[in-house]
């Protein structure tokens, strides 16, 4: 890290997370003004007002400029989407359990005065008001949920940076003007397109003017400063902001400034989770190369620019409601950089910049940006090894992805081969065709384990007795696993059907009441089609709900199959009674279910195949439906922490899990501690799942004791493990090299950490089976290795 | 031919090149005081019994065919090892992880199937299978047949051996092994016998045999406190390696990770306490005082 970056990083870390009300005030004032305007024009005028009134700040040492809020880590509010949670929960922001934010009395007073304007007017209230009561009733059971899309714009997209950088917003404005002028005014769709292009034109101007405000500020500061070095830097910043994002960047520095402006404005327009940065090693490479070849930039300078860029990315933070923080904890917001992977010709496209972007992550070590590394068999060791080094050094956010499987999966949902090869990742594990997709990622969760619970209780919740799903019969009459599976599919089918109704209702509202002119400028083919991003303007449109607890459900099916139907070691009566009573007096039945049936993650076909059944049941249900934008419903199996709240609402399950305990984490990770045959066995199990049919992706969390890296050449072997994992067909994985915190947790809860292996020559020990004194020795050594 | 295997560990990265599957064969002619696999020493299957985990439910008593298990009036389970035949029925019944069986029979086909499970990783990493123990040469027929099967499948084979085996057994195995991980613990025969129960004469003879055959050999020295953790003890081994032309040597720091298993076998753990001693640190220090000319000396596997 350069000295400048160290100062910037320290300043960032010292800054408190706090609420910012600038945007909330601006959007409220503006909305009143533009009530008589058509939807797109109104939204773009509001954006213009937000950008022209918000504070413009250039701080010491900064090379990339743009401020999300008025303070380093302050978060804007978006009351036009949802307002009640702000008014009713703001007193708890500084003290609530997760993700605390400071807020002053003065700020609260202003919000209390201004925000009631949005009650009944905000998108969420309109949705709730419009929804059929029967649908709201089913929604209230909590078997499926989608609150996310009532709180902000859809997000879950990657701007088409390659095109944007190539053209600049002046060129886009001209195109929109030409297209608007060319419209046939007698066409029935005339006004729809007229409104759209008019909105886009205003948005282009707003963006260029916004950058101009930074140029003015930089010039003002340059005139004031006595430090000649800083003066030169400020002059460069001013030049950059006059030039981009209006025009194609001329330098690497300008390209980064361009990207940051777009990234910032995407957030300010409609918020939205998982606005990805795309394949920056490919997108920025031409600019990097030119600067390098002219000798204008050496590697350290490039790294310093990237370091400051990463820090600016970290300033983009978000606040969620108290309920939502249960699902999305922490300061990561899906601003993901995708690295490596193949080019349009299908050949590995990793380059020098790939390595620098990994090196920057190693130096900055903060929660953002997310890093996704695409792996194909031809990936070079020059790219893979720095990634492994980062993993070894505890950067557990890096994710590795299977290029070949994902390209095939994208082709499976209708992408051209060229577009499929150009996929990038959003926040978790979901690929999109770069700059061409409105993915509606993470658009709802379906609790798969709960569907199994209902299947084993004639559609009634085992915790409350409420009839939630259809009546699928008394489980004690089931004569084989097929009966269980049929009941499970019937329950799942019912809830997916309802979720689709709910998602389409949300989609309708975004399309008609909350267009996004700026988003639309950044996504292929909105301009060509004259359609808003929210109205189906993107080249690819999907809706992508997530299944929660597929492994809990699959392990449960395996236990029923083996212990009830095959070995008859347990009867269905006693299992169901055990589940209903949470094994109150039948702990031995629970232990039998847990210990005497195979579990996913151990390379056992018996159970791996049943987990795949669960996955395919979900996929098959979704494949029946089309979304409001005309695209397919596709499945995802990943989540941040949704397995915890959904687990709380789920009774005991036949895999031996107790009522209320979390469901399996990540998406397709083995149940905690159930994978006791090592990482290669996990890779085998995961490789057996039909990933191509889950185009919205899955997450596998894997943890390793640092001893896996002890000795010469072990980083290379870890890279070889990754290569093997990819060969076997897994979709994604992320790796956690455990710290002492985890080892301490394992001492307290050995059962959930049975998988932790301390590796040495000749004999590898399970950490939890070691004597306490030895565990202490290992904890102390792990601490030393870290230093 | 069937063999007795007491453990299979996948994704091993410290026992030969690449990512490997470790097959632990039961039975060993040595009984080293520091042994981290005490359940490897006897030739037949054995039950490990963890009294601390036992809740006294009695399920095991009900299935024991030989009366080796009894429940006392106060509910405790009494286990009489001398009556146990190692059938493992009790372990199959136990829900509390209190009883587990070390040693089950595998046919060569079954074992090969297990080994082949990680072929994808052998391929990406240049790994393979390592037979360990116990002393793998203690089951020569089974070992030979399985090595041959691996050979025919194209899997890289290694054995981790004490070198304590009849020469004619060893000779048959040598052509089937791609790499020997050969333990040398002490050149002083007296001291060797003290801590391992056998002298090192045969072991050193066999090492020469293996080397003379042209096989690849890595010498592994378990560095054990109070036994050979000194320049005086290690230097002769390094000299010997140089003389034989073996260039790769691994120093394996002693660890006590196997100590809990002695308790489960009702055996005393007789290693003097090394608590608080960082063996890795000690071996690193030791290494700085060693003459490593012509050798590549690694710490750990």
Task: Tell me what the structure shows.
The complex is a heterodimer of chains A (787) and B (301). Chain A has 787 residues and is an alpha/beta fold. In chain A, helix 20 (448-455) packs across helix 21. In chain A, helix 16 links the parallel strand 4 and strand 5 (370-375). Chain A contains 32 helices and 16 strands. With 301 residues, chain B is of the alpha/beta class. Chain B has helices at 59-63, 89-93, 108-116, 119-125, 140-153, 167-173, 189-196, 201-212, 231-244, 259-264, 279-288; strands at 2-12, 20-25, 46-49, 69-71, 77-79, 99-102, 104-107, 128-132, 156-161, 179-183, 216-223, 248-253, 296-299. A 9-stranded mixed sheet of chain B has the order 7-1-2-8-9-10-11-12-13. In chain B, strands 3-6 form a two-stranded antiparallel ribbon. A two-stranded antiparallel ribbon of chain B has the order 4-5. Chain B is globular and about 65 Å long. The two termini of chain B are 31 Å apart. The mean pLDDT of chain B is 96.
Give me the secondary-structure topology:
The complex is a heterodimer of chains A (787) and B (301).
Chain A: H1 3-14, E1 18-19, H2 22-33, H3 39-53, E2 74-75, H4 84-89, H5 105-114, H6 123-130, H7 133-139, E3 144-145, H8 161-167, H9 169-181, H10 190-224, H11 228-243, H12 252-270, H13 280-283, H14 285-293, H15 299-315, E4 336-340, H16 352-364, E5 370-375, H17 381-392, E6 399-402, H18 403-412, H19 417-421, E7 423-425, E8 431-433, E9 437-438, E10 441-447, H20 448-455, H21 481-513, H22 517-521, H23 526-529, E11 540-541, E12 544-548, H24 550-566, H25 572-580, H26 587-595, H27 605-622, H28 643-648, H29 679-687, E13 701-704, H30 714-727, E14 732-737, H31 740-748, E15 757-758, E16 765-766, H32 772-786
Helix pairs in contact in A: 1-15, 2-3, 3-10, 9-10, 10-11, 12-15, 15-16, 16-17, 17-30, 20-21, 21-27, 24-27, 29-30, 31-32
Chain B: E1 2-12, E2 20-25, E3 46-49, H1 59-63, E4 69-71, E5 77-79, H2 89-93, E6 99-102, E7 104-107, H3 108-116, H4 119-125, E8 128-132, H5 140-153, E9 156-161, H6 167-173, E10 179-183, H7 189-196, H8 201-212, E11 216-223, H9 231-244, E12 248-253, H10 259-264, H11 279-288, E13 296-299
Parallel strand pairs in B: 2-8, 8-9, 9-10, 10-11, 11-12, 12-13
Antiparallel strand pairs in B: 1-2, 1-7, 3-6, 4-5
Helix pairs in contact in B: 3-5, 5-6
